[in-house]
TrEMBL record, chain B:
Keyword Transport: yes
InterPro entries recorded: AAA+_ATPase (IPR003593), ABC_carbohydrate_import_ATPase (IPR050107), ABC_transporter-like_ATP-bd (IPR003439), ABC_transporter-like_CS (IPR017871), P-loop_NTPase (IPR027417)
Record-given protein name: Sugar ABC transporter ATP-binding protein
Alphabetized UniProt keyword annotations: ATP-binding, Cell membrane, Membrane, Nucleotide-binding, Repeat, Sugar transport, Translocase, Transport
GO molecular function: ATP binding; ATP hydrolysis activity
Taxonomic superkingdom: Bacteria
PANTHER family (UniProt xref): CARBOHYDRATE TRANSPORT ATP-BINDING PROTEIN MG119-RELATED, D-ALLOSE IMPORT ATP-BINDING PROTEIN ALSA-RELATED
Domain ABC transporter: 4-241, 253-495
SUPFAM superfamilies, alphabetized: P-loop containing nucleoside triphosphate hydrolases
Taxonomic lineage: Bacteria, Bacillati, Bacillota, Clostridia, Eubacteriales
Automatic annotation (TrEMBL), chain C:
Membrane association type: Multi-pass membrane protein
Keyword Membrane: yes
InterPro entries: ABC_transp_permease
Phylogenetic classification of the source organism: Bacteria, Bacillati, Bacillota, Clostridia, Eubacteriales
Descriptive protein name: ABC transporter permease
Broad class of where this protein is predominantly found: membrane
Cell compartment(s), UniProt: Cell membrane
One cellular-component annotation, GO: plasma membrane
Amino acid sequence: MKHLANRREVQWNLPALISGAVLVVLVVVNASVQPGYFSSFNLTSVLTGALPLILIAAGQFFVILTGGIDLSVGAVATVANVVAAVMMKSGVASTVSITVLVVAIGLACGLLNGLGVVLGRIQPLLVTLATMSIFEGVALLVLPTPGGVVPTGFSTVLTGTTAAVVILIGLVAGWVWFQRTPLALQLMAVGSDEAAAQMNGMNVPFVKVAAYVLSGGFASLCGLYLAAQISSGDPTIGLPYTLLSIAAVVIGGARLAGGKGTLWGVVAGGFILSMLNSLIFFLGVSSYYKDLVQGLILLVAVAITTYRGVRLKYFTL
Amino acid sequence: MALLGCRNISRSFGAVKALTNVSLSIEEGEVHGLVGENGAGKSTLIKIMSGTLLPTHGQLVWKDQDVILRSAAKAQQLGVETVFQELTLIPDWTVADNLVIARGIPAHGRRQSFARVYDEAKALLARFQLERIDPYQRVVDLPLPDRQMLEIVKAISGKPKLVILDEATSALLEPQVEWLFGHIRALKAQGVSVLFSSHRWSEIAGISDRISILRNGEYVDTVQSDSVDEAKVTALMTGKELNLVFPTKVDPVDDVRLSVRNLRSMRLHDISLEIRRGEVLGVGGLQGQGQLELFLSLFGALPYSGQITVDGRPVHIGRPLDAINAGIGIGLIPEDRKTEGLFLSRPILENISLPKLRRFSKDGFLQLRKERAEVQKAADLLAVKAPSVDVEVGHLSGGNQQKVMLSRWVLAGADLLLLYDVTRGVDVGTKQEIYQLIAKRAQAGAAILFYSSDTSEVVNMAHRVAVMFDYRIRSIVEGDAITMENIVGLSIGSQAEVRYETSG
Amino acid sequence: MVQWWNRMARVDQNIAMSYVMVVVLIFVGALISVGFASPSHLATLLTISSFLGIVAAGQTLVILTGGIDLSVPYLLNASAVFFTGFAARLILGHDALDFLVVLAISVGFGVVNGVGVTVFNIPPLIMTLGMNSVIEGIVLVVTQGTPQGSVPAIASAIVNNTVVGIPIILVVWAGLAVLIALILTRTSLGRYIYAAGTSVKASYLTGVPIRTAFIAVYAASGLFAGLAGIFLTGFSGNSYLGMGNAYLLPSIAAVIIGGASLLGGQGKYWGTIAGAITLTVLITILQVLNISQALQDIFYGVVIFLALLFYGRQANARG
């Protein structure tokens, strides 16, 4: 524990801590404008409302940690969502086996992205843009129009307070454990300085592929959770999540160029974005402002981290 | 017994031969110094011995057995640890992680308990008297000398049999060099061999048992360090030069074209100099003594403070565009022409006319015929050899590429030329042509700042030579005092008496 | 013939190949469906291609500088919605004036992209992705979710009327093509675009006004996407939300098929034109074959993937 309290840790994670503070402010603001904010019903809806974004942003986070980007996360979530809605039947056996299948599909999508980046030597942006189109097409094939249904049990369990809390604690605790594993350390090393990672004998291609696979896996979890939330499938449901996932990662204090960031920061980032949404809704501002605000938040958050003096931009020694 | 030997090692990069037929061997438990001028092949040899580069010909021998070192990891398995000029520390990792687990970390495998890594790193740092460095700190937040020391600790701590230190002291301060020497002696006492390359003679003399000398990619000799002095080694390093013909120096005119007073930029310290029309002011010194920063700040590519006067007029050069335009007329040939100077996939024509397109613009459109005629004239003046000016610059030889760069600035009317190592990677014949072209530009009234990693070029081209050491101008040498011995002596930090005239 | 081919620059070889592809595809279409290669159907094909071709013009310029514009969907959509909206409310009361004001707004969005990329140093991908959302938001706020209005005569005339038997929009497209070619080959700006796309560092040290060049290409992308949006209202007879979404991927694919390097500095608009026609003909063939929208999406992704692999290899071979 003595290490966690270290002053440098505070310094180092400053961006993530700032987003934590913003989150607290948001809670206070929300609580002061919404009566009954701390009622258990409302808290559950705050938690479950933020979870899909947090899950998908967690996946995006691993890719951004290596210095890449994954534009296909929204489409992967959609695929997961529609497959679950079409195939999942009531009963534990079906629920579990389809859940496993859906996650496996997500991992496979991520593998395709990773191999495109590593073997095809194509920029991550373009690989994932191309696969985005492919996955969207697949989702439309599986379920051309919104519909399908997931078992009530699946919905009730996942959208309950217990499940939401367990998932959140699992994410944060999982990160605390994961961040000291060789893989996590190498994800950071590759994003921090790919050449140095190579010089230390690290398997850079493997690490990159692993990041995309993780991203695909988390995107599929997001799709499953969305299925539970709306109790059905929708072949366009993942669309807005691509932008939001990047925004949540950046707001959570991770460096867009890679090498630095924490998952708990990303969780905070996800909560901030989702609570801003509900605040806008509650303040009676037209929901048409949603995209505008989300886009602006992303741009401002990124600009703060990328803006440097003009002078040395094109020439650094 | 020889620990690691080189047998007839050669290495070429394309047409350029970096090493030719080098044979030398490192004995067990010795400190072996490696010296040579810039471009003599030291770095190439070290890369081959550390497993990051394969030789084109020849064989490495480890304890009398032929070995092929395909990767740094392979070399490390044998016990060869190298401290490279490019640091291998992961910037965003903590000091502790970098020291304890960076090397050979498996992709899967056990979780690295932080407490264990932290404690190991703390003990390691204590063993190397570096308790002041917090193992919890991120490497990116450390000053460069500390990072260099950590790189050394990382290499030595791996229980090596041979430690290769490639210019490992270049970022270190005096007491830190002493620290390193203490550990080299300790390694030696344990029977570990050390290969040590440095630009500083005093360091080489102070620590080496034997010294090997390279010159122009060839092996010259290996000598016992107590049997030689600096003068002898300098003579071996410079040797009999190739019979290059240099243009005769013509006395410059008196007009001062550029005057610099108390320039500071990055680590540059109090640079003052002036260049007259028709003069070639050489810049001497070993690599990395601030020459690059001097050239870039004069061209507006680095922020500076101090006073720059052009033709007696004080100016501020905020960016390269200012240096090129506004009657200042500066042109830079940068260090790496391929990434910083030229547009390889674009034709010669566009490369040459780019800075002065305005001259060919009329009513918003380029007058292509006029442009082509003037570009052709400039290219002819500088003897660019190409079927036509529509050829992609990437298809030209190195020498022709430099001529394109020169043509660009001649066309732009730049008569204050900053030439940074123009002949690097250029064949001998074209080198001589370029010397003549530079001399011709000077006689036509241009003022030229000339740095070369080949000291003989500076000696033979320059009217005066500013020798740089540790980001300052150590002295400005003139007239008959411009000799190889003097310049090299001043470059490597000789404490020998300075007998010649110094300016200022 | 072989010698002549070998003498061509790689970019020109790619462009020539993409035109060969166009001819082959039209031939295939004619085999599948009678009348596919008839003059009137070819004119229709070209008209449909023109929207993509005009959007991809801006994308070409941006990609030439090594960037990318992901905001084209709502750049296009905004101009379409504003154009019909202005006409309905008669704010300005004059079609041609509306036309100019809408284009000015589109250029303004593009300038914001350019400023974000050059001044705030935001990666083009993020900047344009964020701007797409911002513009979408602006459109939603302005229209309250339902675009209003009607298509002014000027737009339908450009798309539907002909001069000497050629649809006006094709004449406009040809004019734009010539204009872009002139800018790229005959103006300082063109030289700066290629230079900045080849090496930002070398451009800086050669005195190229990098910022101006970058802002100009993003502004141009705004302009062309805006133009396409206006013309598209003439074609479809109304404006609706999401009408630009179908143009993002194809605009990038057209540039890639046209032989431009995604790393910047290599490529010509003539290639993109072939790319736009290729994609349109392909999709038309798929529609003739009754292939679903879903399969078309998959198909687009695969085409881009393959084109990237193909040209990517070449780039590697060039070293």
